[in-house]
Amino acid sequence: MIELTAYTNQSSSQSPPLKNQFISTQTVFDPLRRLPIIHNVNVTKILLVTYFRGGSTFLGDLLQQNWNSFYHFEPLHYMTVGIRIENERTEEAFRLIKHLFKCDFINVPNYIKWVSIDVHQHLFEFNKFLQNTCYFRPASCFDSLFIEQVCLRSPIQIMKVARLSMRHIEKLAVNDLNLKVVYLVRDPRGIYSSRKLMDCQI
């Protein structure tokens, strides 16, 4: 909790220095103060695996309807924009995923720096729990320590990835038995039509 003390001096030049001085103490709102830290083994981790324009944005919003769900939206966007991650970079992708599921934002400085850039900030805007807690201090939305503290208080973590194939996800799931994988499949005609409208790589 942060305390802010304000001093307003209403004294005249003839008055004693402290005679008419008004002192007030205001407690600044701390959105995390009453939220307990949840041990990682008790956190439900959901990995939403999908394709580009596969309808996952809608499903991701449904999964984070619990007000304190922490939504990692497309963190692998940091590694590649419009293509899937190839074999030689899967270990790097796995490391990022594991760091984020452990709420370890301190050890991914390049990711935080990248997502803090104006054109990438929208990726954090999908995380409603984070946005609600940093609403009054927008700069903290991209502060590693603050993000970590918000994440540590979430009983449910959801992560959407569209840049890894299921054969890669299988390796990740085997190493983390506490991981629940949702594999979203959409009619390929719908995917094709949506990608065409968005001028995505087909």
From TrEMBL:
Residue ranges annotated for the Sulfotransferase domain, each copy included: 44-195
A GO molecular function held by the record: N-acetylglucosamine 6-O-sulfotransferase activity
Top-level lineage group: Eukaryota
Classification via SUPFAM superfamilies: P-loop containing nucleoside triphosphate hydrolases
InterPro entries: Gal/GlcNAc/GalNAc_ST, P-loop_NTPase, Sulfotransferase_dom
UniProt feature coiled coil, ranges: none
Gene Ontology terms describing biological process: N-acetylglucosamine metabolic process; sulfur compound metabolic process
Protein name: Sulfotransferase domain-containing protein
Source organism of the structure: Didymodactylos carnosus
Lineage: Eukaryota, Metazoa, Spiralia, Gnathifera, Rotifera
